[in-house]
Specification:
The protein has about 250 residues and is an alpha/beta fold. About 40% of the residues lie in helices and about 20% in strands. Helix 7 packs parallel to helix 8. It starts with a strand and ends with a helix.
Length: about 250
């Protein structure tokens, strides 16, 4: 059965995604960093307000996925908290200096997860050898791999996505990065069953007064009176397309 996971940067977006028919939420903070661990308050709100599966990301900083000892200790603490609070899964990824799966650390993470569904995120797309990485993640017992096929977008990485999907004897290969309504059918036709999308649109700030010449961001050209939010119409349309594809195949 095909599933649509929506990447949500906040509880309001998660509520919108749920109402629009999303199958699962990847809950993050810090969209400009590509997703960091959400706050404790956000996690508590998700447990209170969301009934579909929520998988928080565990990522202590932006940048690469090769972490210091202190950063790894933080990740382990976050994993333990997420497990204790009852989330059904989480999203994580750790590489070593040579861009291989960091097996010793990922083994520790898997032990801490204790039955939770683990998604290995797009750190996979920076791996030295994707097929070897698939074998290692299969041995670890991860539930799924979020990947763009080691390309900038899933659409351009579709050949590797198809190959990994055919090769996998364990993890679900979930297409992510640039998954949109406009290319969803092409990805469905490749045989993939799970898709990860932000399904977002820009919304304007409700603030009427806007201070000129002051920015909270080091990139001064950033528009801080606009942000991305989940678009319920896009999610609904993607779900309809996925259902039509199921009916067509059947």
């Amino acid at each position: 059965m095909t599933k649509l996971e929506i990447c949500c940067y906040g509880i309001d977006c998660a509520v919108t995604a749920q109402h629009a028919g999303a199958d699962r939420i990847e809950l993050c903070s810090a969209p400009r960093e590509g997703g960091l661990t959400p706050s404790a308050g956000t996690l508590q709100a998700a447990l209170r307000d969301i009934t579909i599966p929520v998988h928080p990301i565990v990522r202590p900083r932006g940048g690469d996925f090769c972490y210091s000892r202190q950063e790894f200790d933080i990740m382990k603490s976050d994993v333990a908290m997420i497990r204790e609070w009852g989330f059904p899964g989480l999203v994580i990824g750790i590489l070593d200096e040579d861009a291989h799966i960091d097996m010793p650390r990922m083994q520790q993470i898997m032990q801490l997860c204790d039955g939770m569904a683990v998604t290995f995120h797009r750190a996979f797309d920076l791996c030295h050898s994707p097929k070897r990485a698939l074998e290692m993640l299969t041995d670890l017992g991860v539930a799924r791999i979020l990947t763009s096929g080691q390309q900038q977008s899933a659409e351009t990485g579709i050949a590797l996505l198809r190959e990994l999907n055919e090769l996998s004897r364990g993890p679900i290969v979930m297409a992510g990065a640039g998954v949109r309504l406009s290319n969803l059918q092409k990805l469905l036709d490749s045989g993939l069953q799970e898709f990860h999308s932000s399904a977002s649109r820009a919304i304007a700030s409700p603030m009427r007064y806007r201070k000129a010449g002051v920015s909270m961001c080091s990139e001064a050209e950033t528009d801080e009176f606009s942000r991305s939010c989940v678009d319920s119409d896009v999610i609904e349309a993607m779900k309809i397309m996925m259902q039509m594809n199921v009916n067509r195949v059947a």
